[in-house]
Amino acid sequence: MKINTKCVQGGYTPKNGEPRQIPIVQSTTFKYASSADMGKLFDLEADGYFYSRLQNPTNDLVAKKIAELEGGTAAMLTSSGQAATFYSVFNIASCGDHVVSSSSIYGGSYNLFAVTMRRMGIAFTFVSPDCTEEELHAAFRPNTKAVFGETIANPALTVLDIEKFARVAHAHGVPLIVDNTFATPINCRPFEWGADIVTHSTTKYMEGHGAALGGCIVDSGKFDWTKYPDKFPGLCKPDDSYHGVTYTERFGLSGAYINKATAQLMRDFGSVQAPQNAFYLNLGLESLHVRVKRHCENALAVARYLKNHPYVSWVQYPGLEGDKYYERAQKYLPDGSCGVVSFGVKGGRAAAEAFMGKLRVAAIETHVADAHTCCLHPASATHRQMTDAELAAAGVSPDLVRYSCGLEDAADLIADIEQAFG
Ligand SMILES: *Cc1c(COP(=O)(O)O)cnc(C)c1O
Fold first, then answer.
1. What is the pLDDT of residues 7-23, one digit of tens each?
2. pLDDT grade, residue 127 (50/70/90)?
3. Fewest Cβ atoms closer than 10 Å to its Cβ: which of 144, 241, 257, 365?
């Protein structure tokens, strides 16, 4: 089936007389006839549900659809994108380990890695997404367990050279994890370029309406953990907290990683997505292929308009001819990149603030990637504690406006921008 059909029909095929739309299983717990039946679930010997902190049938249907969209073998939903990022790394790296990450990633991911996970004893080395292959090799250590990057980084809009990062990760015997939130599987499927694990903040385009937080982790099933049993003991050696189950033996390469994350991390941290939110997410997925196309059309129209505007000093959009990442985007994102455009307002900080104050269609929000056009001036919002010098070091200029194109008519967005400059 083509990806457009998977968006609508993936994950769930009702049998005779069953509901057309996925049922919301609004239950914390599940009933069994005997303790022996339940015991089998606790030993991971039988498939089934016992408590919604670990797994819920609604969530599993939606995760299955996302696995189909990405071309993976297994997936799990999480309560937020942050939880997905954390689990994706913590599932294979623990205290004393090391991870290589692109420096151009979502700010929340950067903070999670550089501050919180570092406090847990995991070291991170950040490399430029544009580093040479030699520089990338040099970042590895004997205890490196994973490489992390973002297909299109939020908010820097850099495009990751997925093939290169995958090749170097594999040369060192570790998987490449890619946050595919901004591209979505409609525009890029990182597994086709060698990535091993994909994460999402489903809060963004996937749910798409600013209604429900969520995250997702998908496994390609391609990384062979058993080639490196000493590097990945959690997957290749018995888990004492589950009666000695060895995940790669019990679930094979297709299911080991996700089953371990569910059995250990969901059990112990409980960042499960509410089934009601999974239902909203599924509604969003049903139109993802239609919406993403429109988001990208609007963004390209806005980027082209801004590029020639006398009050605009620079425009960044990977789909715009002449952009620093245009060539790479043509390779990895030939059908479109994302709906977010960054640009500089001539006159700097004050001019950017004045411009945004006059917008009527675009709302000022700490959000991106939903149906409603929104924008943010990082220098006076997310990055407001920083001086202009600190902003420059963080790659955020004082004049930068991050503009997330929604699903409105591009002509109305452009007219709104035009009047705000007036
Ligand atoms: C928003 C975002 C996240 C974090 O997701 P939440 O759902 O807000 O927790 C992670 N990665 C990217 C690229 C994002 O845009």
1. 999 999 999 999 999 99
2. very high
3. 241
